[in-house]
Automatic annotation (TrEMBL):
The organism of origin for this protein: Erythroxylum novogranatense
Protein name: FAD dependent oxidoreductase domain-containing protein
InterPro entries found in the cross-reference section: FAD-dep_OxRdtase, FAD/NAD-bd_sf, MTOX
Cofactor(s) needed for function: FAD
Superkingdom classification of source: Eukaryota
Domain FAD dependent oxidoreductase residues, every copy: 10-371
Length: 411
């Protein structure tokens, strides 16, 4: 294929998952001559942004994510209006766990601070609300919020890539970036690929998912503790005759369960009659030499399904599974910052989305584009996402939820 574009760009984005694709869209829409480079095929299944469903929820333990979710949900709808099809299907969200669980208390407090409407339900109210579908123990509570729903990941990445192209961006796959070098004479940076091509740009944004630490270390020397985990999504069969009751239309929520096991799921949507229920966590992996299974132990989640979904879902075994990667920081907070050092504000990184970044794709794209173009991002507090926060404190941001620091690494 011939490429008519020259070798010089305003901004080069490295990595075409949800973060890179939404950033490329934001940049191109603002009139920037943008190049998006991807090491594999576009829409491949080897990173974090592929598959059939992601949860959108506003219930965060940390206050600083609330406003980001609210902005992101608006930006999802804006992009849908531009492309002309839907990728985000609204529903409500339900968190549950022991009454003294510190994560749930933090969620309730953060909803209050961010003016996110919520309702705390006791055992009896949960039974009334989800009659015959969700049962929690007497000493548990549930938190119901209206802002929830399902995002279609592969379709959403494809949407942003299409919008980026429509706005003039150049997208190239099978282009593995091997180095990023500052041009000390001319200014700006050079991006070199494994297949021998090179491109110049004023700015560069690195959104390399599970490969972020490796790439950042290579060109800047910075050691970022972002760990790739292989995780597994499971689909379970809903008992015959009950299928509609577990759909968005039937009023079933996206959900998360705190305590042990830490479970999340989405209503039946992508595969009729099957509900997605998975364990939040995974096994450490090398993104270039993946184990591709066998996945995490399912014994606790099977018990959880049997107990919580009131025998309406067959918990003997999942009928389908899919593998995916998380890229996890020690504090599960994102890294959104300038690389600094000799690169100053010319190279921006967005990584470490720790298994909860997809919903934030549009707002992260907006922020990364702001940082690249303006040198700052308005309307968002980025101090928790600093690239150097691990230098003095290997655990990163201090948390007190009782289940932080490595709880996502499962056997
Ligand atoms: C099973 C699962 C369930 C999840 N559920 C949710 C959820 O319900 N809600 C939610 O909000 N989030 C969820 N997440 C998290 C969310 O999907 C991720 O945070 C998000 O997809 C991360 O996107 P990314 O663009 O950073 O990474 P990726 O999608 O991995 O994109 C990075 C891209 O960079 C490319 N790349 C890497 N190195 C190079 C290089 N050197 N040169 C060129 N290209 C390169 C990679 O090939 C890849 O395409 C889930 C994740 C998984 C795996």
């Amino acid at each position: 294929m011939e490429y008519s574009c020259g070798e010089e760009f305003d901004v080069i984005v490295v990595g075409a998952g949800i973060m890179g694709s939404s950033t490329a869209y934001q940049l191109a829409k603002r009139g920037q001559n943008t190049l998006l480079l991807e090491q594999f095929d576009f829409l491949h299944h080897c990173g974090s942004s592929h598959g059939e469903s992601r949860t959108l929820r506003a219930t965060y333990r940390q206050d600083y994510y609330g406003t980001m979710v609210l902005e992101s949900s608006q930006l999802w709808e804006k992009a849908e209006n531009e492309i002309g099809f839907k990728v985000y299907f609204k529903g409500h969200h339900f968190d549950m766990g022991p009454v003294d669980d510190r994560s749930l208390s933090a969620i309730i407090s953060s909803c209050g601070k961010n003016s996110i409407p919520y309702r705390v339900l006791n055992h009896r109210e949960v039974a009334e609300q989800f009659s015959g579908r969700i049962d929690i123990p007497d000493n548990w509570i549930g938190v119901r919020t209206e802002l929830g729903g399902i995002i279609k990941p592969t379709k959403a990445v494809s949407m942003f890539q299409t919008l980026a192209i429509q706005n003039g961006a150049v997208l190239r796959d099978h282009m593995e970036v091997k180095n990023i070098v500052k041009d000390k004479d001319k200014g700006g940076i050079w991006v070199f690929t494994v297949n021998g091509e090179k491109f110049w740009a004023k700015k560069c944004v690195v959104t390399a998912g599970a490969w972020t630490s490796r790439l950042i270390k290579k060109f800047s020397g910075i050691e970022l503790p972002i760990e790739p985990l292989e995780t597994m999504v499971c689909y379970w069969r809903i008992k015959e005759g009950k299928e509609k009751e577990f759909t968005l239309g039937g009023g079933f929520p996206t959900f998360a369960s705190y305590g042990e096991p830490r479970v999340y799921g989405t209503p039946a949507f992508e595969f009729p009659g099957l509900i997605k229920i998975a364990v939040h966590g995974g096994q450490l992996c090398d993104p270039d030499n993946r184990p591709w299974g066998p996945g995490v132990s399912l014994s606790l989640v099977k018990e959880w399904i049997g107990r919580t979904l009131m025998g309406q879902v067959d918990c003997e075994r999942p009928v389908a599974t899919q593998l995916c990667m998380y890229s996890v920081t020690p504090d599960e907070d994102f890294v959104i910052d300038f690389v600094g050092g000799e690169f100053g504000k010319d190279v921006v990184v967005g990584g470490g989305f720790s298994g909860h970044g997809f919903k934030m794709g549009p707002v992260v794209g907006r922020i990364l584009a702001d940082l690249a173009l303006e040198g700052e991002a308005k309307g968002v507090e980025l101090k928790h996402f600093g690239i150097r926060r691990f230098e003095d404190s290997p655990g990163g941001n201090v948390k007190d939820f009782g289940d932080e620091l490595g709880n996502l690494k499962l056997n």
